Automatic annotation (TrEMBL):
Protein encoded by which gene: lptE
Family annotation (Pfam families): LptE
InterPro entries: LPS_assembly_LptE (IPR007485)
Keyword Signal on entry: yes
Subcellular location: Cell outer membrane
GO biological process, one term: Gram-negative-bacterium-type cell outer membrane assembly
GO MF, one annotated term: lipopolysaccharide binding
Keywords: Cell outer membrane, Lipoprotein, Membrane, Palmitate, Signal
Protein name as it appears in the record: LPS-assembly lipoprotein LptE
Biological role: Together with LptD, is involved in the assembly of lipopolysaccharide (LPS) at the surface of the outer membrane. Required for the proper assembly of LptD. Binds LPS and may serve as the LPS recognition site at the outer membrane.
Gene Ontology CC entries for this record: cell outer membrane; transporter complex
Annotated family: Belongs to the LptE lipoprotein family.
UniProt subunit comment: Component of the lipopolysaccharide transport and assembly complex. Interacts with LptD.
Record lineage: Bacteria, Pseudomonadati, Pseudomonadota, Gammaproteobacteria, Pseudomonadales
Tree of life domain: Bacteria
Length: 162
C-alpha cells in the first residue's frame, strides 16, 4: 500500500512539473539587457525595493545616469480605495485597493516604450474593533500589490524589442 502511495505521488508531481507549473514569483524572467537606470519621484518610493529585487532576480544591474544605458522612468503611485461591502452596522467592511503607476523606457534620451499604465489591485477587510489589525492587513496587501506591479514591469520589459 505504501508503494502505491509513493507511485501516485511521483506521478502527480511529474504531471504538475511537466505542464510547466511554477509557484507564483519563483520564475525568473530573462531580460535582454544587463544594466538599467531606474528613475522615480524623489523621496520614499515604496515600489523601489520590490522592483530592485525583481530586476536582480533577472540579472539586471542598476547603474547611475549614463546616456548609453536604458532608463526606466516611473511615475508616483496612484492609490484608489473603494468600498465593496458593508458590515452589519452599515459601515464599510471590505475595500478594494488599486495601485497604478506609469512607466516609460528610454535609451540615450530616445523614447522606446510607454507611457504604459500598470495596475494591480486586491481586497482587504477593515474591522473597526481591531484597527491595528486592519491597518496591518492593508499594509500586507500593499506589499503584495507592489510585488505584482514589479512583476508586471519585468514582464513589460521582456516584451520590449530593443
Amino acid at each position: 500500500m505504501n508503494a502505491v502511495r509513493v507511485l501516485i505521488l511521483t506521478l502527480g508531481l511529474s504531471a504538475v512539473s511537466a505542464c510547466g507549473f511554477t509557484l507564483r514569483g519563483s520564475e525568473s524572467a530573462a531580460l535582454p539587457f544587463p544594466t538599467l537606470i531606474l528613475s522615480h519621484p524623489a523621496g520614499p518610493y515604496p515600489l523601489r525595493a520590490p522592483l530592485i529585487e525583481a530586476l536582480r532576480a533577472s540579472n539586471v544591474d542598476l547603474v547611475e545616469n549614463n546616456n548609453s544605458d536604458l532608463q526606466l522612468v516611473l511615475s508616483a503611485e496612484e492609490q484608489e480605495r473603494r468600498t465593496i461591502s458593508i458590515n452589519t452596522r452599515a459601515g464599510a467592511g471590505q475595500y478594494e485597493l488599486t495601485v497604478s503607476i506609469q512607466a516609460n523606457l528610454y535609451r540615450a534620451g530616445q523614447h522606446l516604450a510607454g507611457p504604459e499604465t500598470l495596475t494591480a489591485s486586491g481586497t482587504f477587510y477593515e474591522d473597526t474593533a481591531n484597527i491595528s489589525g486592519s491597518s496591518s492587513g492593508q499594509e500586507l496587501l500593499l506589499a503584495d500589490i507592489r510585488r505584482e506591479l514589479a512583476s508586471q514591469v519585468i514582464r513589460r520589459l521582456q516584451a520590449v524589442s530593443l
